[in-house]
Amino acid sequence: MRVLVIEDDATVASFLTRRLADDGHHVDHAADGQAGLDLASEKNYDVMIIDRMLPRVDGLSIVRTVRDEGDQTPVLILSALGEVDDKVHGLKAGGDDYLVKPFAYSELMARVESLVRRFNSQEEKTQLEVDGLKMDLLSREVTRNGQKIDLKPREFLLLECLMRHAGQVLTRTMLLEAVWDYHFDPQTNVIDVHISRLRQKVDRSFEEPLIHTIRGSGYVLRPPA
Asked: How far is CA 211 from the centre of its chain?
């Protein structure tokens, strides 16, 4: 899941980005409203978590702007303002949910997952499937021919990327950008290591492999010929 966090409180932002990343989600963070608005306009996200009180551009103005631009990405508004009128203003601005600070991470994630599930049920599939390999994007369960495959968060993201682009050769740079967000030197062997681990789990117990190396180019997930 791709998440945009717009939060100027360094402690809250650090906590959220760390926990979301640990859970295997791709997170972008903006520390002020204008930077957050720029990211929201430039990239596609599954959900946006926006603090109401922000420098430069306030949270409700961000929500109104993205809605005016036709962006229907689910928005969870965070705020220390917890009166009924505050919540009503947030929802009327275009927010999909409103969570008052301080909050428990478990509640925040429950709300985020509910928003994404609701949005996905209307806009896009919540499951990926390639030749018996199935991935549930909400429960994060992966099976092949009914056999459960346990993946670590980064392995899940890597497989999701391969499945979303099934049949397309993905270079190491493309995978680094999609899964590691350029946090590693392109010369690193982190891709090869994770692909090897993924193969052990996805292909080892089956007659036909799905993950293939294209020498000099990258990797591709494709069904047997």
From this structure: 22
CB atoms within 10 A of CB 44: 9
Q: Which CATH architecture has domain 2-123?
A: 3-Layer(aba) Sandwich (3.40)
What is the residue type of 99? L
CA distance 200 to 216: 22
β-strand 141-144 against 211-214: which pairing, if any?
unpaired
According to DSSP, the residues that pair with 75 across neighbouring strands are: 48
Task: Please write the tens of the pLDDT for every residue from 42-76.
Answer: 888 999 999 999 999 999 999 999 998 888 899 99
For residues 149 and 202, is the Cβ–Cβ distance under 8 A? yes
CATH fold of 127-221 reads Arc Repressor Mutant, subunit A (1.10.10)
Q: Please, which residues have CB within 8 angstroms of residue 220's CB and are 6 or more apart in sequence?
A: 162, 167, 168, 169, 170, 211, 212, 214
pTM of the entire structure?
Answer: 0.57
37, two tokens: 């608005």
CB burial of 189-219 (b: ≥16 within 10 Å; e: otherwise) equals ebbeebbeebbebbbeeeeeebbeeeeeebb
